[in-house]
Amino acid sequence: TDELIRKSDKLSLVGQLAAGIAHEIRNPLTSLRGFIQLLQYKSEDNKDYCGIMLSELDRINLIVGEFLILAKPHMVQFNDRDINQIIRHVLTLIGTQAIINNIHLDHKLADELPTISCEENQLKQVIINLIKNAIEAMPNGGTITVETGMHDENHLYIRVTDEGNGISKEMLDKLGEPFYTTKDHGTGLGLMVCYKIIENHLGELKVQSEINQGTTFEIILKTSISNKELVTS
Ligand code: ADP
Ligand code: MG
């Protein structure tokens, strides 16, 4: 076990270093972005090049951002939160993107769910990543349904269902592997982030899919001990 402990210490040091570097990369990127935008407006000749530079910069930003989430699981604080409220917030955040892509965002949220102990922003990130993938799986539009409910006495579920192109049996095994993507402009990090965050919450992330029918991602999380229980026990 000594060896194991030392290994995980080293890992977290590397993780911290990586998170620090990722963070430091972002600041110069922001300043680069500003100057390229300035150039874009000033010179008609180089407009196209500037456009390419901006989209490449955005790509670096996306990868670094997803990497940051992976690298710093330490600094998170868990609080009791209403999952339905978190989902409603995410739905407003992503609403415009859905409309642009001809997607109808539906939701069926159960009443009176117990709270869960979670890092709100991380859970939002998971749901955003799942909905983004669902949108990208339906290039011709369709419906995405987000549902919540009780899985059993102590666990609730969050489901994101799409009517997209689905995932083949062979590909299901690869989900969550870093850089696994079937998209031209994918990073292949989104699901890895989801798995990592749900693991941090001691939850489960499951997937069910049928080619050309659609896909359901289901998150199962333990509900918080209610205040009442805490006082009486
Ligand atoms: P990215 O979205 O950048 O490709 P992800 O880790 O988010 O990376 O997803 C990895 C791969 O899993 C995707 O490229 C896609 O092939 C598959 N995938 C994920 N979600 C869905 C979905 N809802 N429907 C179909 N395929 C999906
Ligand atoms: Mg994705």
Automatic annotation (TrEMBL):
It comes from the Bacteria. Residues 20-225 form the Histidine kinase domain. This is histidine kinase. It comes from Pseudoneobacillus rhizosphaerae. The chain holds residues 304 to 536 of 536 of the full protein.
